[in-house]
Amino acid sequence: MTSLLPRTALATFAALGLMAGSAFAQDYPTQPITFIVPFSAGGPTDTVARLVAQAMSDELGQQILVQNVGGAGGTLGAGQAATAAPDGYTLLLHHIGMSTAPALYADLPFDPIEDFEPIGLITEVPMTLVARADFEPETLEELVTYIQENGENVIYGNAGIGAASQLCGLLLQDALGVRMTEVPYQGTGPAMTDLLGGQIDMMCDQTTNTTTQIQAGEIKAYAVTSPERLDNLPDIPTTSEGGLNLEVGIWHGLYAPAGTDAAIIERLTEALQVALVDETVITRFAELGTAPVTEGQATPEGLAETLSSQIELWGEVIAAAGVTAQ
Ligand code: ASP
Q1: Is residue 236 scored above 90 in pLDDT?
Q2: Is 131 found in the same domain as 109?
Q3: Which pLDDT does position 1 carry in this prediction?
Q4: Per residue in 94-137, pLDDT tens?
Q5: Which residue among 170, 188, 192, 211 has the greatest number of ligand 1 atoms within 8 angstroms of its CB, and so is best to mutate?
Q6: Which domain holds residue 96?
Q7: How far is CA 227 from CA 120, 205, 233, 251, in A?
Q8: For the domain that residue 313 is a member of, what is the CATH number?
Q9: 124 CA distance to ligand 1 middle (Å)
């Protein structure tokens, strides 16, 4: 369409727009920021988000609120964040699910790459294979035999299709060649409550949600999915020590809706990097079996690279497992 305004007027408007945008970005943030966490409160993604939010809030001088939007394996919350105003006041803190969802959902309501501006990678957290305290198997070897013999009678809790706990269960079932009965929750916070209550038999979840209960002897732990044993859970063998081919690390990243001003992204990346060297964050992460990523990874480039390579990796793994998109 041809504009009715002369070229000079258009140029002036554009310049004014740019100035307004950068003035706005310079002042940022002038109001509280919201982190959308696409899982329930009390779970591992929520735990990481609240620790990082507090430290970033101290750095930015503005409150950061955590809004839990659980459901559909994290895709509901991610979809909501994708359509939020790109003004730096609504961000998404999500995990590996950003990279598995495209292979698991035929009609994903967002594009993890096109609809978001990456801010930075945060941390990588190992998973643990855990069960209710009175579950029969005592060791990983016994667990493997038990699942193979009992298949669908084993009740496995997860946070829905696209969640890390679902991915880990998928890899486990694929490795063992059996199906269990999967019970989806809006996050593994409530799934942990049911595991403690004995309503479900087992799950595979991040150490950020299982360490305290394992250390207190409230649940059984069979293995960690990291290549090496963990400092905070030194008695728990790795999956490979038990002969199980299941290694997975759950990474978390921070995103803004596409179209967010580059100066705002830069300010958020800086604040994230400050948060990741915060003593409280480092100490609590270590207690929960994780550590912040390096400064070079806590960047838009670091997260973009991880996201695209993980979309490729999990797309292949999920296709090879013969899982049909929902
Ligand atoms: N750990 C969960 C999962 O992806 C999500 C959560 O509740 O944080 O399975």
Answers
A1: yes
A2: no
A3: 34
A4: 999 999 999 999 999 999 999 999 999 999 999 999 999 999 99
A5: 188
A6: 32-125+250-321
A7: 24, 16, 14, 15
A8: 3.40.190.150
A9: 13
